[in-house]
Each structure stands twice: as structure tokens, then as C-alpha cells.
Design a protein that fits this description.
139 residues; mainly alpha; two-stranded antiparallel ribbon; two-stranded antiparallel sheet
């Protein structure tokens, strides 16, 4: 497995992971820089465990159309393609902007006209719906 680079300074090998948002960092100074803008991931435990998942979900109920199981989230989390595109600082900034947008649907609609963001979205959607990877290929 290749070494992961610190998401804060983008220079050193990451040694640690934030317990609130799972971003990787290399040192105390990088952690201190990160903690000021940390966006914690909300995880709740479900009573129903699906095969291969521990039951942790993020932000949605299972009957919600936007629900992603922990197994699917881990596919995104450990995807080499996602890892590679997230090296792009502009994409990371766009994701932060989306998280802070008051109207996320409008923000996403506008962002889909950006070629790099569109590539990021296509990669994520092809992982989420692995049975039909071209279903979301938006051009």
C-alpha cells in the first residue's frame, strides 16, 4: 500500500488521522491548522446490520434515497481513483464550499459545469452504483 500524504501540508507522509473527520495529517502543527476548520462526520449506529457492514451510517435513514451503507462509504474512502482526484486542492476547496453552501442543490447544479468537479462526481457515482457504472456518466 502506498504511503498517504498529509492532507494539511501536502508534503509529508501522514502518520495520524483525525478522529472527527478522518482527514490524514503528519504532525501537531498540521493538526492545529486542521482542527480550526474540521468538519466532523456524523455517524450513528443502526440496529439493522447489512452483510459486510458494521451498521454505521452517515446522516441519512436507510429508507432515504441518499443513504449509503458503511460498506459503500468505505469503497469511496479507500478508492485509488478518489484518492488521486482529491490530491487536487481545487476539488477539495470546492467540496468545502459545497459543505458550507446554504443551498447545496443549487451549488451542485452550478458545480457540475466545472470539468474537474464533473470528473470527481462521475468517479464517486460509479463507485456508489458499481452495478451500473455508466448510469451517471454526465457530460
Amino acid at each position: 500500500m502506498k504511503s498517504l500524504v498529509c492532507a494539511v501540508c501536502e508534503n509529508n507522509k501522514s502518520k495520524y488521522k483525525c478522529s472527527k473527520c478522518y482527514i490524514r495529517y503528519c504532525s501537531v502543527p498540521c493538526y492545529k491548522n486542521h482542527v480550526e476548520q474540521c468538519l466532523p462526520v456524523k455517524i450513528k449506529k443502526e440496529d439493522n446490520f447489512s452483510e459486510g457492514a458494521s451498521g454505521a451510517t452517515i446522516g441519512f435513514e436507510e429508507d432515504d434515497p441518499d443513504f449509503l451503507s458503511e460498506k459503500t462509504l468505505n469503497k469511496l474512502r479507500f478508492s485509488e481513483d478518489v484518492y488521486e482526484i482529491l490530491k487536487n486542492k481545487r476539488i477539495r476547496e470546492m467540496i468545502k464550499d459545497c459543505n458550507q453552501a446554504s443551498d447545496k442543490n443549487q451549488w451542485l447544479k452550478n458545480a457540475m459545469s466545472d470539468e474537474q468537479f464533473l470528473q470527481f462526481a462521475n468517479i464517486c457515482l460509479s463507485i456508489v452504483d458499481a452495478n451500473n457504472p455508466n448510469k451517471y456518466n454526465i457530460d
